[in-house]
Amino acid sequence: MSAAAPHAKGWSTLSVALHWTIVVLIVVQFIDHEWMVDLWRATRRAAPIDATTEAWGWVHIVAGSLILIATLARLLDRYAHGRPPYPAEEPTWASWLARITHGLIYAILILMPIAGLIAWFGMIGEAGEIHEFLWTPLLVLIGLHVIGALAQQFWFKTGVLKRIFVPGTV
Ligand code: HEM
Ligand code: HEM
């Protein structure tokens, strides 16, 4: 079955669970990223690190790695089971905007943790800069995505919002 199989019966339970797991993990990254920056700077300068910074820094590394795994698992599941069709009620431009937004979100959720891992385990500053650079585009895309989801619900009046909460809803 292709990645865009139109006859998929809603999102799978795994896909819905991973969507919300990734949301929670991104909130965790939002909260802990300043500690990670402190840990990174102190480690590179061989400066002393307090226990709180170290603990939250490692939360960042673990949560970020889990985002990578969850995103890859989500894409595999999407490839195996397809995704529900884009609603016929919405205009074509809106479906294309959604496709592009989703594609870029997936790309950043893969590239960003890989750049972070390369920066940290290789102590490579350029990878850290790429990692940092991707944060703002990710936030903008998430903002666009959430506005899109709310527009689906209240403007185009499709049932798309329900299907990301209830597996099997088309
Ligand atoms: C999608 C997952 C991830 C997100 C959303 C994320 C987010 C962030 C953010 C917002 C910053 C602060 C950037 C700044 O203001 O300077 C940061 C810094 C950093 N993160 Fe992540 N991170 C993720 C995964 C990872 C992973 C898996 C690692 C692996 C060790 C990692 C390592 C780092 C490092 C080393 C820095 C400091 C880079 C610098 O300041 O140049 N991150 N991350
Ligand atoms: C960190 C925040 C979020 C990220 C990274 C994210 C990412 C994604 C991705 C990658 C998809 C899959 C699209 C596909 O494979 O075709 C998706 C679907 C979806 N998301 Fe999110 N999402 C986030 C937050 C939210 C929030 C807060 C809402 C609700 C207000 C939401 C509503 C939806 C809906 C309704 C779908 C299904 C779209 C459809 O069936 O056509 N998302 N999300």
TrEMBL record:
GO terms for biological process, alphabetical: respiratory electron transport chain
Keyword Electron transport listed: yes
Occurrences of domain Cytochrome b561 bacterial/Ni-hydrogenase (ranges): 11-165
Location(s) in or outside the cell: Cell membrane
Cofactor(s) in the UniProt record: heme b
Main localization (coarse): membrane
Keyword Coiled coil recorded: no
GO cellular component terms attached to this protein's record: plasma membrane
MF annotations from Gene Ontology: electron transfer activity; heme binding; metal ion binding
SUPFAM superfamilies: Transmembrane di-heme cytochromes
Membrane-protein topology: Multi-pass membrane protein
Sequence intervals crossing the membrane: 12-31, 55-76, 96-121, 133-156
Alphabetically ordered keywords of this record: Cell membrane, Electron transport, Heme, Iron, Membrane, Metal-binding, Transmembrane, Transmembrane helix, Transport
PANTHER family assigned to the protein according to its UniProt record, in alphabetical order: CYTOCHROME B561 (PTHR30529), CYTOCHROME B561 HOMOLOG 2 (PTHR30529:SF1)
Family as reported in the entry's similarity comment: Belongs to the cytochrome b561 family.
Name of this protein: Cytochrome b
